[in-house]
Design a protein that fits this description.
CATH class of chain B: Mainly Alpha
CATH architecture of the largest domain in chain A: 3-Layer(aba) Sandwich
Structural class of chain A: alpha/beta
Largest sheet of chain B: 2 strands, antiparallel
Strand content of chain A: 15-25%
Distance between the termini of chain B: 20 Å
Helix content of chain B: over 70%
Number of helices of chain A: 18
CATH topology of the largest domain in chain A: Rossmann fold
Strand content of chain B: under 5%
CATH topology of chain B: ABC transporter involved in vitamin B12 uptake, BtuC
Largest interface: A-B, 40 and 36 residues
CATH architecture of chain B: Orthogonal Bundle
Order of helices and strands of chain B: HHHHHHEHEEHHHHEHHHH
Structural class of chain B: mainly alpha
Oligomer: heterodimer
Shape of chain A: globular
CATH superfamily of the largest domain in chain A: P-loop containing nucleotide triphosphate hydrolases
Helix content of chain A: 25-40%
Number of domains of chain B: 1
Number of domains of chain A: 4
Largest sheet of chain A: 6 strands, mixed
Shape of chain B: globular
Number of strands of chain B: 4
Amino acid sequence: MNGAMQTHNRPPHPAPLEDPAPILEMRGISQIFPGVKALDTVDIKLFPGEVTALIGENGAGKSTLVKILTGIYRPNEGEILIDGQAVSFANAQAAIDAGVTAIHQETVLFDDLTVGENIFLGHAPRTRFGMIDWREINNRSLGLLQALESEIDPTIRLRDLSIAQRHLVAIARALSVEARIVIMDEPTAALSRKEIDDLFRIIEGLKRQGKAILFISHKFDEVYEIAENFVVFRDGRAVGHGKLPETPQQDIVRLMVGRDVKDVFPKVKVEIGAPVLRVEGFTHPTEFRDIFFELRRGEILGVYGLIGAGRSELCQALFGVTRASAGRLVLEDTPISIGSSGDAIRAGIVYVPEERGRHGLALPMPIFQNMSLPSLSRTSRGGFLKAANELALARKYAERLDLRAAALSVPVGTLSGGNQQKVVIGKWLATKPKVIILDEPTKGIDIGSKAAVHGFIGELASEGLSIIMVSSELPEILGMSDRVMVMREGLAAGMFDREQLSAETLVRAATGNA
Amino acid sequence: MKKLFKHREILLVVIIAIMIAGFATRAQGFAAPGNLANIFNDTSILIILALGQMTVILTKSIDLSVAANLAFTGMAVAMTDAAYPGLPLVLLVVMAIGIGAFLGAINGYLVWALQIPSIVVTLGTLTIYRGMAFVLSGGAWVNAHQMTPTFLNIPRMPLLGLPMLSWIAVAIVIGGWFVMNRLPFGRATYASGGNPTAAVYAGIDVGRTLFFAFVLSGALAGLCGYLWVSRYAVAYVDVAIGFELDTVAACVIGGISIAGGIGSVAGAVLGALFLGVIKNALPVIGISPFAQMAISGIVIILAVVFNARAERRVGRIILRNRAAVEVQA
């Protein structure tokens, strides 16, 4: 791994000639989940008064690292040193006691508590008699918020604050403990440019206090603006690190994406046929706007973008789970209107959701009933369910997908994750769709199964299905797609043919960095 | 044997048989066919209501208004019968089912359209329907002598050794089995409760399924309104007070998961019979009414604990049905 490291040794900016001693050091950290190595012998150092940016694709292991540092996971291997002393966090409180605090991506705050209560929840100052010291809470909250240049009254309820103000409360909460190491997990995701500037001023202040900051972000411009160091994660490994202003962006992108992906995904050559689905000016009140594209028979359209770019929302609207407020859908030259998922299924558009457990399966129900659920109109006779037809249908797709189960009548909840996945896919294939939308089809499954899923997607395309594949994994998008639509902040930020595809182009379009 | 016990319905049958045998040692003739037929007849109304309740619980909801619905409908048909003795009974029964279904539809509409949790909606309508029964009757009773003989006698009329009331329950059990297993609506209730989001994604209108579950529960409660006043030959405001809890208890004992999506018609019926046997046995073997309530309560809690454990241990096995046999054959 050291081979990939970049060692730019410019004189560190304040003064000393050598790097100062790191506050926190992680050595050889590995985190193994059943079937997946989420982190693989990762080394990281955080220095006092410096911001280290952690960069990587979704699923590269950033969140796992945050969870280890905040005591939620305990690593299987490796050690964490604070000021050179080995520490181990038995739980989240131990991490806080050791001086690590985190501002999470999705802030965990309570709408119906006051700002002060939110800031001091769990470590409220007590009076001499062990009662909660409200005056102290409010005074200290006020102090913290003022240090963040905010005028929020600590006694009002969180419900009444804007998103950005809530974020400030979350930051105040993180700083309310004596922390020397501050982790910020995509802190700017919900903020406007002005609020980001405010946040960066706060970070500069923290730097001056000598705190070490781990800053996780997708946005390169911000990373270059605020960070001194960077670490790039890919597939659970730290593949490179270095100093920031002097490392060019192209190098970082290359580290993020890694291997030349077109070789890993031997794309099945498919004859692209006539247009199947035309989407014109598709618009949702809040999530996306003015989406145009055309999908042809046998084509795989990749949809790439950052989390929150509106990709899943677009697909859900195409599938009728949410309603688009404007726009037109034309399926095989017939305009269609989709008001519910039932309409979409009848029209031949199906959606394999990202969260298969939550959206895909009724776990207590038997396999065959899950599989037949969207196809009941075809398996029933005269309005009555026909178990024999349902079983025949389920058996057909179970064989095709090589589903391993004791019987088709066992509840889906008793199956392994991979087999549950097969039930979801079988269920949708059984509706005989024309267009199949796959939302993050390989999220959370191991490399071997991924290859199988990719092979299967290619097979579907060669049978003439049109596929929309939403994915956050660049290699997957680059390797599988005939064309790629990139979304950014609810808009289509570009449409690229296979010949034009490159990791750099897509990342630029997705992040808006020219 | 162990595998047999995995099927909760069979286990319940065994437990009920053991209970009957046990009670028979203390009270002579408890296990006599005649007495068992009596117990079944006694439990008929609970069985019918438990089936309605089951449909609602399968969708992750609860209908606390069934007993109040029953009281109002029962009062309405009893007063109609007293006021217009010439009306044919069929009309009164249709009226009972119609009123019940309408009251159920109110619950269903509030839950569906306004997205209010069903426990809140039906807790409210419970008091409203009971109050409506009071307003309708002015607090007065309708007594046996005011009711027509047909109104009173049909449910008691013996047929092949069992009263009509029992046969009605049997018919509804068969009908319930058919609805839950052979109609898309039945499947939709399991799917809506098992995973509402997945149900939506599969093209099922979860809200409408909920609505019709409440309508069904209400219609059965309405029917029971007539059966109840006819059986006890009296209609008053406090008829069947607290009986909604018995219906929930029957479902819970029968293995219908309060979290939705798990349960069977056989389970609900056996849960109701289980309660029926206990209620009939305890007075016979001389246990005070106060202890009876405590014992019923303990049984319900044990059933819940057992359910929770069963669901954890072997995944969710309760839904195995006829199809299991077909696959393996």
